Amino acid sequence: MSTTGILFVTGATSGFGRAIAEIFASHQWKVIITGRRQERLDALKTELENKYKTSVLPLCFDVRDEMEVNNAVNSLPADWKNIDVLVNNAGLALGKEVLQEGDSMQWVTMIDTNIKGLLYVTKAVSPLLIERKKGTIINIGSIAGKESYTGGNVYSATKFAVDGLTKNMRLDFLPHHIRVSQIAPGAAETEFSLVRFSGDQSKADATYKGFMPLDARDIAEAAWFIATRPPHVCINDLVIMPTAQANATTFNRNSN
Ligand code: NDP
Ligand code: 8X3
After folding, report:
1. 239 lines ligand 1 (CB under 6 A)
2. Distance between CA atoms of residues 94 and 38, nearest Å
3. pLDDT at 2
4. Among all ligands shown, which has an atom nearest to the Cα of 141?
5. What is the pLDDT of residue 256?
6. How many angstroms separate the alpha carbon of residue 129 from the centre of ligand 2?
7. What 8-state DSSP symbol labels residue 41?
8. Are the C-beta atoms of residues 6 and 29 closer than 8 Å to each other?
């Protein structure tokens, strides 16, 4: 599948989603970019269209709001409905306290975004793939959805849910010739830690201190690889970590 197509990627205003939008645009795919920050979506549309001479359609909505999700997907013009690849990427971690000291409002936000948001978007977009009897869905999980770590609790649980949902979606979409993949990254330097630590730059920097983390492009290249396999090949699961990270909690922090 190396011909062009249409990508729908959530969370394209930053990090992995932005890099995924760019790599597909650079191969002349049409890209539907989504997120809550309209100004970033508009700036990305201008940048990608100028750089790659392709078409970019921004959709501004909150994945936690099912009605907003449905309205956005229903608003797609006819020539944007032939979606080939859906990347469920929008997500976040908030806080890293042990459970007994956790903030229940942060738990709700993570559950609503990382699990319910993924479900709402998939339910709204997948009929467009089913209709055409083809397509690829890529869920962005995490090493936190494979292993537990202290303070990971609810974030980790949401990513274990993504891991489980990916396997279930593979069953549900099997009759419809739709392949479902997961990418589970380890430490990657995006806005993720800044969001997790409520804008505390020193805490965000400390996360990546002493080693070279992944960057967004590393994950985008994996998404591109998955999406461009021949139609009979499904990459079920890719766990990708920095060379300096051995598991969720063990790093070589003397490696750069
Ligand atoms: P960023 O913070 O850089 O990007 C997160 C994106 O998600 C933004 O575009 C943001 O857009 C969007 N988003 C968050 N909440 C919502 C919402 N309610 N509605 C719509 N969009 C939303 O982080 P990353 O790029 O690193 O994270 C992307 C995904 O990768 C997440 O699912 C994260 O859990 C996962 N991940 C990250 C890792 C890392 O180390 N960076 C490792 C493993 C997994 P906006 O704010 O404009 O709405
Ligand atoms: C992000 C990676 O290990 O900080 O999903 O949870 S981790």
Report:
1. no
2. 22
3. 47
4. 1
5. 74
6. 30
7. H
8. yes
Among candidate residues 109, 112, 166, 151, the one with its CA nearest the CA of residue 248: 151
Nearest ligand to the CA of 192 is 1
- pTM, entire model: 0.98
CA–CA distance, 87 with 7 (Å, rounded to integer): 8
Average pLDDT over residues 99-121: 99
pLDDT in tens, 123-141: 999 999 999 999 999 999 9
Whether 242 lines ligand 1, by a CB cut-off of 6 Å, is no
Q: Where are the domains of the chain?
A: 6-240
Contact 105, 154 (CB under 8 A): no
Residue count (the chain): 256
Q: Give pLDDT tens digits for 215-235.
A: 999 999 999 999 999 999 999
Separation CA 66–CA 134 (nearest Å): 24
Report d(CA 60, CA 41) in Å as an integer: 8
Return the CATH number of 6-240, one of 3.40.50.720, 3.30.430.20, 3.40.50.300, 1.20.1440.60. Answer: 3.40.50.720
pLDDT over threshold 80, residue 214: yes
Q: Return the residue whose CA atom lies nearest to atom 32 of ligand 1.
A: 91
Give the mean pLDDT of the chain.
Answer: 98
